Model the fold of this input.
Amino acid sequence: MLSQETIQAILGIKEKIYVTPGEMADQLNIVFFPYDKDSVSQEILYFQDKLYTTLEKLKVNIVPYEEAFEYVLLRKRFRLLFLLITNHILTSLKKMFGLSPDPSYVNLDVISNILKEKKIKKGISIVALGESNTSNLPMDNIAGFRNNSVITILDRPVDIKDDSEFHKHFDTAMNLFAHHMTNIVILVDKGSWIVYNFNASHPIYPLDSNFEKHVLDALIPKIVAPIKPNRFSEFEISPTKFDPDKKPINDIVEDLIKSGELLEKTNLYPPGKSIDSLPFRNKFYRWVGAVLLDHRNGMSYGFLAWQLPTKLSKLIQLEDALKIFGKNISDEKDYFTHNNDIYIIVHLPQGKFCLKVPEVWVLSQRSGSNKTKLNPQEDLVKLGLKNGQMIIETPKNLKLTSSYKPSFDTKVMLAHAVGNAIVGSILEYIKPDAIFPQRLKKKGLAMSHWHGYINPKLVPQGWYVYGQHNPHVSCSTPQSAIYALEGKLSVFNKSLGEPIDYLGDIHIEPHHGTNISFASLEEFGLLLNYKKDIATLGNKYLYLYE
Done:
């Protein structure tokens, strides 16, 4: 319905983003890390050889190990060291005055690593085999913690079975990430392989069946699109603060609180993991883990949020828009700007129209909070998107600490919110009395994400499913936001020819989870408790959509 360029403009994503597995494979640079053959099992060696051959076939750029390194200029090393020490002093002072509970560590481990004169170049991912020595892990040898993914191939633990439940996989994965300082873990045995990444998923693949397809669709996207939480620097900080006790926020807070008991019964929102609970080998590795999580205290899974009541946009027939906006409109693009506002051009059965992309706001829970036990004074954050710029607004009287971070899925939330607003604007024009736009204008919409799927036989009428065939990217990536918005608009366009009115959609993120909008979180909780196993954690229902 809209081009990728337009979707990126709406979402404020300025860098080039590769969204197909083929594009991702073409952009992937990878190096295989040295290993001791005597300490690695035959299963790992077999898998490595098979992976190497497959990556070559997929035209991935495999970099010889000796060519992967670059010299790091002395001034760069000392500049980084100076910044880290300064940051350490500042965070320690903040802690002294009660402003930050979690200082960044700068000790001898950190200093010795920073002063290494050779590092693997940014943009090259590393495959490691088995157990590596402390201080010589791939993570010790990379130039950028955010720009080099590490993939570690390990023997599958004997206690990880095909039918192991979600929490067993989750705990195992998190411990392996911390111990091996890796972004992705591949567990292998003689007949299968499992992929763990920060999506808290655990796809299990047969070793010799469709191997190339699984590497292309499920592994390469996770490497090329690693976890990437939004930083405060990406937001415009609103000078105003919201009051949780005033409308419409207080109505939403009431729903977040009332729905908590219902949603907790579903077991879809498990407790997260704190950084301090993970088995890092030393303080340097713990510090790297904090960097990768944007200095969050840990990770929790899923989100509960509300899109605030939204002002919808009027549709303008394209011929009238040409008279109003003139030369701003190009035949080559499906969007344009006017007075800093973004307008899109849509093709509908009724003709061609343009509309201003609505400004949207979402009330969310901060990253790491207990999803089903809300503390309104500490756990809420208001997120906005206006003309491609993300905005953050905090509650009044909140004392900011380093633990107050927006959700990993912020971009996806805002993609769904702006998609809902565009859909609502179009639907109000086509059918003014439709439920969806009236609900969005007057009360807003509840939004939920969990790491599992709804039984496809129990999808409520009026909700349309999409996303099940998308590449398996990590959460918080720009790709996941693009898939959310592009898919929502496409499935809505298809729904216009269906007899059942559009009430919302179910966005499936393969080997990640589900996003859904609903009238309220309480109603969503009632739906989930209506029948046993209508939705679960893990992949139980994912493959039934294919």
In short: The chain has a mean pLDDT of 89.
